[in-house]
Amino acid sequence: MREIYDAQLRLEFYQSNSKMSKKLEKISGILDRDIRFLAKISENFKTPKKSSAGAKGMTIEQVVRVALLKQLRQLSYEKLYDVTSVLKMS
Description:
Number of strands: 0
Largest sheet: none
Low-confidence stretches: none
Strand content: under 5%
Shape: globular
Order of helices and strands: HHHH
């Protein structure tokens, strides 16, 4: 089962005064304040049996944040991969 949230993964990024940055900051604040939203979404990721095999994968929070970024910036999956790869390397 996916973890919902991992406090150890908090990263700080440069924030500009752009409209997109302000939108992302508001969304981030909502996600940070109320974990019940993420818990509700996690119900859609449950699998019938637990398995210790395979990669750990992303937390529910990470999945939601990446999905929001993809939609807000209207990215293809290829472009999303490029954007998130750059973030991982920083």
